[in-house]
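Below is our example:

___
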Amino acid sequence: MPETDAASSILPLHIEETIQSVAELNAEHRANATHHQRAVDRITSLLGRASFIATLTAFVVGWMSLNCFALALGYRAPDPPPFAWLAGASSLASLYLVILILTTQRGDDRLTQRRELLNLELTILSEQKIAKVVALLEELRHDSPHLHNRIDELAEAMARPADPQSVIDAIKESHSSTLP
């Protein structure tokens, strides 16, 4: 805890609040995960480690060696070359691995979508705040006797908040002209 207190005293309050909000978003995502989703995440995490690759490699080499060694000694091998049982087990394990990865990716996609929505909402809010600041600066410029009063069309345009639907429509229109 002392390291956290030292680190947090260095950061400004608004940055600490932002970091805390993102941490809460992640914690809420984990808390809302079903028991099945948490189990799949744990399994995927275990399967994604280098130690699993080494263990799997040792198992496959051991299986093949055991069967070849049994044949060399004149015994009946449980799974002689071309190792049909090993191939079947590998195919089944591959199927389960694909399903695990897809399930994990689907959960991660939900969190990503929430983050993207939050990012979009904050971007729109920031744009509205910036437009308000520009409008206030323009008003200050008009009201100040020390500043030359002139028409600044760009500042006037920037002082008006963008309409998100108009922006979406413009993006759709510009991309539709580039599609075949």
The chain has a mean pLDDT of 86. Residues 33-176 form one domain.
